[in-house]
Structure formats: C-alpha cells, structure tokens
Amino acid sequence: MASGRLVYGIDVGTTKIVALAGRVDPRRGWVEVLSRGEAPSRGLRRGMIVDRELAASSIAAAIDDCEVSGGRVVVGIAGGHLSSFNTEVTLLNRGRNRTITRRFVRRLEEEARRVDLDEDAQVLHVVPRGYVLDGTEGVKNPLGLAARKVTLRAHVVCGAVSSIQNLLAAVEDCGVRVSRVVLEPLASAEACLTEEERENGVILMDIGGGTTDIAVFQRGALSHTDVIPLGGQSFSSDLAYGLKIPVDRAERLKLRYGTVLSSAVDPVAAVGLGGRHYNAHFMSQILECRAREILEYARDSIRGARLPTSLPAGAVLTGGGSLLDGMPELAEDILRTRARTARPRRVRGQVKPIQKPQYSTAVGLLYLAAKNDHAGPESEGARALSFGSIVEAVKSWFRGG
Q1: Where does the record place the SHS2 domain (predicted)?
Q2: Is the pLDDT of residue 392 over 70?
Q3: CA distance 322 to 330
C-alpha cells in the first residue's frame, strides 16, 4: 500500500462507536491516525444490532465526527452469534510439477468450509494455522513449494448471516461502503501483540462494553477464538443494582474508584460522588465477582479447546474493561499465567487520545485495512460489499488473514 493513501476503520461497539482515518506505512510498521470520530452507541446489545435506525444514527455521528469521505471502510464484528473450531483438510496435488499454487490453496480453503451448520449460520473466516507437505510439518507459506499430499490446518469462524446483514445495513445506511468485515479480536491482536508473543503463545482478551473477545495464538497461528457475552456494561449494571443507584452514576463510580481486588480495600473505607458516600469494599466485591466470572469463562473456554492457559507470553488484556484496577493481577490468579494490560502499538499522529486500550480494535482495523488494500486485486476481501449482495458475498469476506 502506498503510505499516502487513507484507510478507514469503524469499531461498532455496544457502548460506543469509534471511526478512525489514517495512513499506514507497512514497511516501517506504524499507523498515523489523522482523525477520530466517536459517538455513544445506541441500538446495539452485546455486539449485535437490535435497532437498525438507532444504530445507523450512532454510526453516522461517529463517521461525521471523523470526517470520513470518499473511502471504503473496514468494520469490526463481534457478538454471541460467532463460533469457531479447528479443522484440517488434505488434498492430493495432481499438478504436472506438483508446485503449490494460489489456486490450490484456495481449493484447500474451500474444503475447510464444507461443514454442516445451522440454517442461518455461515462460515465466515478460514484462518490458516499451518500446512503439512508430504509429512513435513511447520510450513506457514506453501506457495511455490512442491508436494503431492498437502494438508491445511485452519481455524474456522462461523456466524449468523442475519446478524452480519444487520451490521452491514446499519453501516451502509450512513452512505459509506464496506470493503471488509474483520473479526474484532483479530483486529485487537494486530494492534497489541508482537510477532514474538504470537510465536511463543499468548492469550488476548479484549474486554469491551458488551462482550469480551478471546483469541489464543500458538506458534504464530490463531488456535482459538470465543466471545463472552459480558463486558464493561456488566460491571456498571452490577454496581447500579447492588448500590440501588442509576447506571450512569454507577459508571462514574466504576471509572473513578473501581477495583477488582476486594482484599486490598479497607472494609470501612468510603468513596464519595455527588454528595453521597458508598462503601468502597462492597463496591470492589461486586466488581471482583463479575471480573472472576469473565476470567473463569475465558479459562474454561480455552481449556475446553484443549489448550493450556499457561502460555510463555502470558495473557494480554485490552479494551476499556481492562482498565479496572487489579485486572492483570486477578487474571494471573485465575489463568495461572502472567498478564499485562496493553494499548495499541506503533501509533503516531493523535497519539494521546488513541493510545488507550479502548481503541485497540479501531487501530487494528486500520492496519488490516492497509494489509487488505496492499494485497491488490487478487484479494477477494478487497471487493466492496453492499447490503444487497451480502448473501452471495459473505463466503469470500474473510478469506485469508
């Protein structure tokens, strides 16, 4: 991609919509954020559109604030309708010289898509984890190599066509065209993780407003993804219920005084807001209970995929929910591995407002927009999508990484 070309990313979250415009230099590996638009999110519940008109209004406000014009956007997708699994397929290469071509790799990916799904479900994303060539393991890029028996090991992500239709419709109601839809934990990983962490093995947890996205990498490849239908909103709602106060007041208390380490809080300590005082220890117990639930869900999801939670690069927490005091320490206790909070890396331009965990997905979308554009016309994900053509186009959105 030419470093001067603008790319756009839109993170359609449960609590806020973030639109970014920027330039990416793929050779130097950094993104320059030129403008940001942000608006409170309406019409969404746990990552999915429940009111198209309200959602479109929120998205339009963020787009106008960012001054997106004349470009195609990359949109992040999350929500409880997503599911994933690992698979492997094998084909015989009957080419004359047995050289593996791009066409042959696409045949492997199409084979990986041939699974039985529910009526509204669709294979969205086939992410290669590695290839085996005539018994030789550990091949990451088979193009140009010779082999007769080729096995693709892949991570397959599925989702509800109706939910994706609703997302596309709401975005395109705002007068922009979607060039690609990206699984949100992949975008967050692009912004926060190093290649060394992916190679060594790492857990990424993006604790957003309505959901927590999980992605596990081993030997540089995506091994597991999951979506937990709990996030920052759950913390605020719990506080509101426990303290018998409005949610907006609970949100302010959470941001100002929230901690998930109740053992470190004096049982008689009090915090004040708006002339009223609240027991700090009781607040921390409420927040810790919900945080434990989220982290235990992540632990059980990873173990259910027959993967260890103790990986060499540990756990990386991002998203707005990761900013609660004590989250890394609690994650270390539950996941039995070291943990840290991460913000987007390699960001220039509007650095101060963007280099925060709550913008990881949006920044990652810019990087993936640049990669998609740089792939050129052979990249099927580069084709513009529209609501009207979604059913036919959905099969090819996520091909490749």
Answers
A1: 7-192
A2: no
A3: 11
Per-residue pLDDT reduced to its tens digit, 36-92: 999 999 998 888 899 999 999 999 999 999 887 766 789 998 888 888 889 999 999
Residue 247, C-beta contacts closer than 8 angstroms, at least 6 positions apart: 236, 237, 240
Instruction: Establish whether domains 84-158 and 195-341 are of one fold.
Output: no
The hierarchical CATH code for the domain 84-158 is 3.30.1490.110
pLDDT tens digits for range 101-127: 999 999 999 999 888 777 777 887 788
Residues in Cβ contact with 35 at an 8 Å cutoff, skipping those fewer than 6 apart: 20, 21, 22, 66, 67, 350
- Mean pLDDT across the chain: 86
Task: Read off the pTM.
Answer: 0.85
Q: Please report, for the chain, the start and end positions of each structural domain, with discontinuous segments joined by +.
A: 84-158, 195-341
Taking a C-beta distance cutoff of 8 angstroms, is the pair 227, 213 a contact? Answer: yes
Q: What is the Cα–Cα distance from 9 to 6, expressed in whole angstroms?
A: 10
Q: What percentage of the chain exceeds 70 in pLDDT? A: 90
Query: Residues, the chain, total?
Result: 401
- What is the rounded (10 degree) CA torsion for 317, 168, 10, 71? 150
Q: Rounded distance, CA 356 to CA 264, Å?
A: 26
